[in-house]
Amino acid sequence: KAGVTQTPRYLIKTRGQQVTLSCSPISGHRSVSWYQQTPGQGLQFLFEYFSETQRNKGNFPGRFSGRQFSNSRSEMNVSTLELGDSALYLCASSLERGPDTQYFGPGTRLTVL
Amino acid sequence: AQSVTQLGSHVSVSEGALVLLRCNYSSSVPPYLFWYVQYPNQGLQLLLKYTSAATLVKGINGFEAEFKKSETSFHLTKPSAHMSDAAEYFCAVSDMNRDDKIIFGKGTRLHILP
Fold first, then answer.
1. How many angstroms separate the CA atoms of B73 and B71, rounded?
2. pLDDT tens track for A59-73
3. How far apart are the first and last CA of chain A?
4. Share above pLDDT 90 across residues of chain B, in percent, rounded to a whole number
5. Does the distance separating the beta carbons of B103 and A45 come in below 8 Å?
6. Would you state the pLDDT for residue B52?
7. What stretch of H or E contains B57?
8. Which of A3, B16, B26, B88 is in the most buried spot, having the most CB atoms within 10 Å?
9. Please, is A102 exposed, middle or buried when counting C-beta atoms within 10 Å of its C-beta (0-12, 13-18, 19+)?
Protein backbone atom coordinates (compact mmCIF):
# COMPACT_ATOMS: atom_id res chain seq x y z
CA LYS A 1 0.00 0.00 0.00
CA ALA A 2 1.39 3.39 -0.93
CA GLY A 3 2.15 5.73 1.96
CA VAL A 4 1.11 9.31 2.48
CA THR A 5 2.40 11.52 -0.31
CA GLN A 6 2.93 15.25 -0.17
CA THR A 7 3.64 17.60 -3.03
CA PRO A 8 5.72 19.52 -3.61
CA ARG A 9 8.57 18.45 -1.35
CA TYR A 10 10.26 21.85 -1.43
CA LEU A 11 8.96 25.35 -2.06
CA ILE A 12 10.52 28.78 -2.03
CA LYS A 13 8.21 31.79 -1.90
CA THR A 14 8.52 35.46 -1.07
CA ARG A 15 6.66 37.44 1.55
CA GLY A 16 3.13 38.34 0.59
CA GLN A 17 2.66 35.44 -1.80
CA GLN A 18 0.31 32.56 -1.22
CA VAL A 19 1.00 28.83 -1.38
CA THR A 20 -0.98 25.62 -1.73
CA LEU A 21 0.31 22.30 -0.43
CA SER A 22 -1.17 18.94 -1.32
CA CYS A 23 -1.54 15.69 0.60
CA SER A 24 -2.73 12.30 -0.62
CA PRO A 25 -3.57 9.97 2.27
CA ILE A 26 -3.15 6.23 2.39
CA SER A 27 -5.90 4.52 0.41
CA GLY A 28 -8.94 4.01 2.62
CA HIS A 29 -7.92 6.58 5.22
CA ARG A 30 -10.57 9.20 5.79
CA SER A 31 -8.91 11.54 8.28
CA VAL A 32 -6.17 13.97 7.31
CA SER A 33 -4.34 16.21 9.76
CA TRP A 34 -1.81 18.95 9.08
CA TYR A 35 1.08 20.04 11.30
CA GLN A 36 3.66 22.79 11.16
CA GLN A 37 7.12 21.84 12.38
CA THR A 38 9.72 24.47 13.28
CA PRO A 39 12.90 24.27 15.38
CA GLY A 40 11.53 26.72 17.92
CA GLN A 41 7.92 25.60 18.31
CA GLY A 42 8.18 21.93 17.46
CA LEU A 43 5.15 20.18 16.00
CA GLN A 44 2.04 22.30 16.08
CA PHE A 45 -1.38 21.07 15.02
CA LEU A 46 -2.97 23.08 12.23
CA PHE A 47 -6.23 21.32 11.44
CA GLU A 48 -7.95 18.00 10.85
CA TYR A 49 -10.30 17.06 8.05
CA PHE A 50 -12.68 14.14 7.97
CA SER A 51 -15.35 13.47 5.36
CA GLU A 52 -14.60 16.80 3.69
CA THR A 53 -15.29 18.74 6.90
CA GLN A 54 -12.86 20.50 9.18
CA ARG A 55 -13.26 18.76 12.55
CA ASN A 56 -10.56 20.38 14.60
CA LYS A 57 -8.41 23.47 14.36
CA GLY A 58 -5.23 24.63 16.06
CA ASN A 59 -4.26 28.15 17.09
CA PHE A 60 -3.21 29.56 13.76
CA PRO A 61 -4.40 32.75 12.06
CA GLY A 62 -7.03 32.72 9.35
CA ARG A 63 -4.30 32.96 6.70
CA PHE A 64 -4.00 29.20 7.13
CA SER A 65 -6.84 27.27 5.57
CA GLY A 66 -7.48 23.87 4.14
CA ARG A 67 -9.95 21.60 2.50
CA GLN A 68 -10.56 17.96 1.82
CA PHE A 69 -11.95 16.43 -1.33
CA SER A 70 -14.33 13.51 -1.74
CA ASN A 71 -11.40 11.15 -2.41
CA SER A 72 -9.90 12.24 0.97
CA ARG A 73 -7.05 14.15 -0.65
CA SER A 74 -6.39 17.38 1.17
CA GLU A 75 -4.87 20.74 0.43
CA MET A 76 -3.75 23.50 2.74
CA ASN A 77 -3.33 27.10 1.72
CA VAL A 78 -1.35 29.87 3.32
CA SER A 79 -2.06 33.39 2.11
CA THR A 80 0.02 36.53 2.56
CA LEU A 81 3.12 34.59 3.51
CA GLU A 82 5.34 35.83 6.34
CA LEU A 83 8.95 34.96 7.10
CA GLY A 84 7.78 33.05 10.16
CA ASP A 85 5.78 30.67 7.99
CA SER A 86 9.01 29.00 6.91
CA ALA A 87 8.66 25.46 8.22
CA LEU A 88 8.21 21.81 7.42
CA TYR A 89 4.52 21.12 6.86
CA LEU A 90 3.54 17.57 7.64
CA CYS A 91 0.40 15.78 6.65
CA ALA A 92 -0.81 12.67 8.48
CA SER A 93 -3.63 10.31 7.64
CA SER A 94 -5.55 7.79 9.70
CA LEU A 95 -8.46 5.44 9.14
CA GLU A 96 -10.79 7.20 11.50
CA ARG A 97 -10.82 10.27 13.70
CA GLY A 98 -9.46 10.53 17.17
CA PRO A 99 -6.42 8.82 18.67
CA ASP A 100 -6.04 6.34 15.88
CA THR A 101 -2.53 5.76 14.60
CA GLN A 102 -1.45 8.55 12.30
CA TYR A 103 0.76 7.86 9.31
CA PHE A 104 2.90 10.79 8.27
CA GLY A 105 4.06 11.93 4.87
CA PRO A 106 7.61 13.19 4.25
CA GLY A 107 6.53 16.81 4.48
CA THR A 108 6.80 19.93 2.37
CA ARG A 109 9.68 22.23 3.24
CA LEU A 110 8.48 25.83 2.74
CA THR A 111 11.01 28.65 2.74
CA VAL A 112 9.72 32.22 2.73
CA LEU A 113 12.23 34.89 1.65
CA ALA B 1 -6.18 20.30 28.56
CA GLN B 2 -3.52 17.81 27.70
CA SER B 3 0.20 18.41 27.50
CA VAL B 4 3.43 16.52 27.04
CA THR B 5 6.86 17.30 28.44
CA GLN B 6 9.96 15.64 27.11
CA LEU B 7 12.95 16.07 29.40
CA GLY B 8 16.12 16.85 27.49
CA SER B 9 16.09 18.24 23.98
CA HIS B 10 19.34 16.33 23.30
CA VAL B 11 20.45 12.99 24.71
CA SER B 12 23.75 11.27 23.92
CA VAL B 13 24.47 7.61 24.59
CA SER B 14 27.27 5.31 23.57
CA GLU B 15 26.63 2.55 21.06
CA GLY B 16 25.53 -0.54 23.00
CA ALA B 17 24.38 1.46 26.04
CA LEU B 18 20.85 1.79 27.40
CA VAL B 19 18.64 4.38 25.74
CA LEU B 20 16.20 6.23 28.03
CA LEU B 21 14.07 9.07 26.69
CA ARG B 22 11.74 10.69 29.21
CA CYS B 23 8.16 11.74 28.66
CA ASN B 24 5.66 13.07 31.19
CA TYR B 25 2.09 13.83 30.27
CA SER B 26 -0.84 15.70 31.69
CA SER B 27 -4.36 14.54 30.97
CA SER B 28 -7.62 14.81 32.87
CA VAL B 29 -8.90 11.58 31.34
CA PRO B 30 -7.24 8.23 30.58
CA PRO B 31 -4.81 8.98 27.79
CA TYR B 32 -3.61 7.34 24.66
CA LEU B 33 0.17 7.76 24.42
CA PHE B 34 2.48 7.49 21.46
CA TRP B 35 6.15 7.58 20.59
CA TYR B 36 7.17 8.61 17.10
CA VAL B 37 10.62 8.76 15.49
CA GLN B 38 11.73 11.18 12.79
CA TYR B 39 14.82 10.60 10.68
CA PRO B 40 16.39 13.52 8.80
CA ASN B 41 14.29 14.82 5.92
CA GLN B 42 11.50 12.37 6.64
CA GLY B 43 8.10 12.39 8.26
CA LEU B 44 7.29 10.80 11.59
CA GLN B 45 7.05 7.04 12.03
CA LEU B 46 5.11 5.38 14.84
CA LEU B 47 7.34 3.43 17.23
CA LEU B 48 4.67 2.28 19.68
CA LYS B 49 1.41 3.30 21.30
CA TYR B 50 -0.40 2.75 24.60
CA THR B 51 -4.16 2.40 24.44
CA SER B 52 -5.06 1.25 27.99
CA ALA B 53 -4.21 -2.42 27.54
CA ALA B 54 -0.85 -3.68 28.85
CA THR B 55 1.20 -1.03 30.63
CA LEU B 56 4.44 -2.26 29.06
CA VAL B 57 4.28 -1.63 25.35
CA LYS B 58 6.71 -3.13 22.87
CA GLY B 59 7.39 -1.34 19.62
CA ILE B 60 9.50 -1.62 16.54
CA ASN B 61 13.31 -1.64 16.40
CA GLY B 62 13.62 -3.03 19.95
CA PHE B 63 12.04 -0.05 21.69
CA GLU B 64 9.55 -0.32 24.52
CA ALA B 65 7.78 2.06 26.89
CA GLU B 66 6.05 1.67 30.22
CA PHE B 67 2.92 3.56 31.20
CA LYS B 68 3.08 4.62 34.85
CA LYS B 69 -0.11 6.34 35.91
CA SER B 70 1.16 7.28 39.37
CA GLU B 71 4.11 9.09 37.82
CA THR B 72 2.21 10.32 34.72
CA SER B 73 5.14 9.04 32.69
CA PHE B 74 5.67 7.10 29.49
CA HIS B 75 9.43 6.79 29.13
CA LEU B 76 10.96 5.15 26.06
CA THR B 77 13.77 2.62 26.47
CA LYS B 78 15.98 0.37 24.40
CA PRO B 79 18.49 -1.97 26.05
CA SER B 80 21.30 -1.48 23.54
CA ALA B 81 21.69 1.57 21.32
CA HIS B 82 22.63 1.22 17.67
CA MET B 83 24.06 3.88 15.40
CA SER B 84 20.90 3.71 13.30
CA ASP B 85 18.85 4.89 16.31
CA ALA B 86 20.19 8.42 15.90
CA ALA B 87 17.07 10.48 15.17
CA GLU B 88 14.54 12.77 16.82
CA TYR B 89 11.91 11.19 19.04
CA PHE B 90 8.50 12.62 19.85
CA CYS B 91 6.14 11.67 22.62
CA ALA B 92 2.47 12.43 22.03
CA VAL B 93 -0.78 12.26 23.99
CA SER B 94 -4.42 12.13 23.09
CA ASP B 95 -7.52 11.19 24.99
CA MET B 96 -10.04 8.58 23.98
CA ASN B 97 -12.46 11.18 22.72
CA ARG B 98 -12.58 11.14 18.96
CA ASP B 99 -12.95 14.90 18.91
CA ASP B 100 -9.59 15.50 20.49
CA LYS B 101 -6.36 16.06 18.67
CA ILE B 102 -2.96 14.54 19.31
CA ILE B 103 -0.55 16.79 21.22
CA PHE B 104 3.16 16.32 20.57
CA GLY B 105 6.10 17.05 22.83
CA LYS B 106 8.93 19.23 21.57
CA GLY B 107 11.09 16.23 20.77
CA THR B 108 14.37 14.74 21.95
CA ARG B 109 17.27 14.38 19.57
CA LEU B 110 19.16 11.17 20.27
CA HIS B 111 22.87 11.10 19.46
CA ILE B 112 24.76 7.79 19.39
CA LEU B 113 28.46 7.95 20.22
CA PRO B 114 30.75 5.34 18.67
1. 5
2. 999 999 999 999 999
3. 37
4. 74
5. yes
6. 78
7. strand B56-58
8. B88
9. buried
